[in-house]
Amino acid sequence: MADGNHAGKIIVGVDGSEASIEALRQAGRLAGPLQAGIEATACWEYPQMYDGFVYTDLEGFEESAQQTLDESLTKAFGPRRPANVTARVVRGSPRAMLIEASKDAAMLIVGRRSHAGIGALLVGHVSSACIAHADCPVLVVHAAEDAGEG
Q1: Is 33 helix (H, G, I), strand (E, B) or coil?
Q2: Which of 46, 76, 89, 93 is geometrically suited to a Cys-Cys bond with 24, CB 3.0 to 4.6 A?
Q3: Nearest-CA neighbor of 138 among 28, 18, 11, 36?
Q4: Per-residue pLDDT at 149
Q5: What SS3 string covers 39-103?
Q6: Residue 53 has pLDDT above 80, yes or no
Q7: The predicted structure's pLDDT at residue 124
Q8: Is 29 helix (H, G, I), strand (E, B) or coil?
Q9: pLDDT per residue over 66-120, tens digit each?
Q10: CA-to-CA distance for 66 and 42, rounded, in angstroms?
């Protein structure tokens, strides 16, 4: 699966949801057989600014994304992070940043948030953009509690 340009790296999009934590766990299961490292990636953006509205704590967004990433890694792997896992926080749209990261990856794994009824057949906007535009295979996983439904 990995060629010389992709160095066996699995990118995992992390947003703190149960689905993204399951994506980390799936990456952990796949990394050994694929001889791949795991790069857990959290993205953050400044909120849209509207006329007359200025958000007062602009510096807190990156720190919040880092905290979410750290907590997600602990939930997925426990207090001792595996040696092949690196964490990265980037500023930008999750769709754009994950698609860009896919250019240097063997695989991209993203979580799919659960929906009930007909919504269960849909993937979200980030997952769907990654499926359509990533430069590597994409695995979309459900949250662990959703895996047995349906």
Answers
A1: helix
A2: 76
A3: 11
A4: 47
A5: EEEEEECCCCCCCCCCCCCCCHHHHHHHHHHHHHHHHHHCCCCCCCEEEEEEECCHHHHHHHHHH
A6: no
A7: 78
A8: helix
A9: 999 999 999 999 999 999 999 999 999 999 999 999 999 999 999 986 555 444 4
A10: 7
Q: Please report the domains of the chain, with CATH numbers, ordered by start residue.
A: 9-146 (3.40.50.620)
Joined together, the tokens standing for residue 144 give 């662990």
Contact 66, 89 (CB under 8 A): yes
Instruction: List CB contacts of 2: < 8 A, sequence separation 6 or more.
Output: 8, 9, 34, 35, 36, 106
Render 2-22 in DSSP notation, one character per residue.
Answer: --TTTTTEEEEE--SSHHHHH
Single out the residue of 72, 92, 61, 60 nearest to residue 14, CA to CA: 72
Check pLDDT > 80 for residue 49: no
Residue with tokens 């754009």: 96
Least confident of 2-6, 77-81, 128-132, 137-141: 2-6
In this structure, which amino acid lies at residue 83? A
pLDDT over 90 (residue 57):
no
Which distant-in-sequence residues (6+ apart) come within 8 Å of 144 by Cβ?
18, 21, 22, 25
